[in-house]
Amino acid sequence: MLCEAEHVLVCARCGRVFKRVVFRCPSCGGLTIFKYSDKSFSVDKSYPGIWRYRFQLPKISKTISRGEGLTPINKVMGVLVKNERFNPTGTYADRASSIISSYLLSSGIDRVRVRFEEDFTYSLAYYLDGALQVEILVDDPLSLDYSDIAVLSRAEGVSLSLESSSLGESYLSYVNPLTIEGLKTISFEIYERKVGVDRVVVPAKTGLLAFSIWKGFKDLEEIGLDIPYEVAAVFIKGSKNSFPLDLARYVKVYEIERDEVLRSLLKLCKKGFVIKPLSALAFTLSDILSNSLAIVTMGFRSLVRSNTRNTNVRREILQVLKSYGEATAYEVWKKLPIYTLRGIYKVMSSMEERGEICVEIRSRGARKVKYYRMC
Ligand SMILES: [Zn+2]
Q1: 292, 198 in Cβ contact below 8 A?
Q2: pTM flag (> 0.85)
Q3: What spacing in Å lies between the alpha carbon of 2 and ligand 1's midpoint?
Q4: Residue 310: its pLDDT value, please?
Q5: Domains of the chain (ranges plus CATH)?
Q6: How far, in Å, from the CA of 356 to the mean position of ligand 1?
Q7: Alpha helices, DSSP H only, in 107-155?
Q8: Residue 173 near residue 115 (C-beta atoms within 8 A)
């Protein structure tokens, strides 16, 4: 259960303080926010995933981690990006799910109702893994595609309710104080790595991610640390901001024209990157502002689709092998984290088959390990 002395929740609208976890202020309906009394920032590397920052996270007795967080930071076409695709289900929602599932299991709750939200719902179902019953309420059943239904209906403990009318009852919304605590760990990772930029550019649909990243930096400032980062939230011009707080009070808000986003999207697609328009938005603004880190979710298409069109990745693999002399596929992937490990394995074994690289198998303990080198 929660050890209540170490944090409180404060209503962001009316300032009322709560010693227990409430998701919305019962007086005014405002969003509640965690405040901590611990006044130091320490990293506990013995805890997995985002729980390495447990001193600045809700005090919860059971912690569930599936390896979320510590996502790589690297340069893509001259822009520094933190790629949230390297989370277990491929999105930053996993950070929120880690906190929410830990809270739900620690609280002895055996059933939860959530509203279907594309990335978050998958992520939460994956984190709970049948440990409690999840009822998913779908607002607009016709907007689901078959693969959504297939994946979720096979997940253990999950029941899909395709009646939007049942939404009137209470349900767990993605916008809640636990989500904010999960997402803010992105800031802690940026601070811990001492990334040398002036600002963090965050793609914004509702503004929840940008607010959470601001909150992470704010928590560190309240400890007394010097935080050099500004948070920039970037919206597509004309899109509606539904965040319950006035985002401009916390972060710098930018709007980018749709045409500009599409140009950037096209440029990245031509290079083989798979990226959603919102991530492309952060990428574009980071490029314009410079000295920035963009929070993105991006992958590389050609690795999945075809083995023969991987000219770029093959060239990069050869460069790594040239600099290392020899390396395992895993060591190569550590240098090229923009690709998936599986993708690197696939491309390297096809390069081996074609004789583009040479391989030597050596024993490492009981295991046989393949070392690659230039032929
Ligand atoms: Zn209130």
Answers
A1: yes
A2: no
A3: 22
A4: 66
A5: 93-168 (3.40.50.1100), 306-374 (1.10.10.10)
A6: 64
A7: 118-128, 146-154
A8: yes
